[in-house]
């Protein structure tokens, strides 16, 4: 299968975790750091995303996130195609911003 913008996926993780106690803040920080270690990038404070070259690769990272789920709070996991991601419009205030860079794909014959 050739790589294309419909097969390449982005995995988005949305979360709202409690931060009321010192233990809650520790769990929150650990969850964030574990996402970063798995190759996710911060998109907004509670939204992290990761570029995946295939459905199989995305499934691996989704399983890892599920193993990291904290005992309390809300976490959402969503996948979208590279084509859908490319149609997103980003703004900082009223100024339009560029989308994050897509990692380069290497195609072998």
In brief:
The protein is of the alpha+beta class and 109 residues long.
List keywords for this structure.
109 residues, alpha+beta, two-stranded antiparallel ribbon, 6 strands, 32% helix, EC 3.1.-.-, metal-binding
SSE blueprint and pairings:
Blueprint: E1 9-16, H1 22-37, E2 41-44, E3 47-52, H2 55-68, E4 74-81, H3 82-86, E5 90-92, E6 95-97
Antiparallel strand pairs: 1-3, 1-4, 2-3, 5-6
Verbal overview:
32% of the residues lie in helices and 29% in strands. By secondary structure, it is an alpha+beta fold. The strands form two sheets. Strands 2-3-1-4 form a four-stranded antiparallel sheet. A two-stranded antiparallel ribbon has the order 5-6. β2 (41-44) and β3 (47-52) form a beta hairpin. It is globular. The termini are close together.
Mean pLDDT: 89
Task: Give a count of the beta strands, DSSP E runs of length 2 or more.
Answer: 6
Element pattern in H and E: EHEEHEHEE
| Low-confidence regions | none
Q: Helical element count?
A: 3
Shape: globular
- Per DSSP, what share of the residues sits in E-state strands of 2 or more residues? 25-35%
Helix content: 25-40%
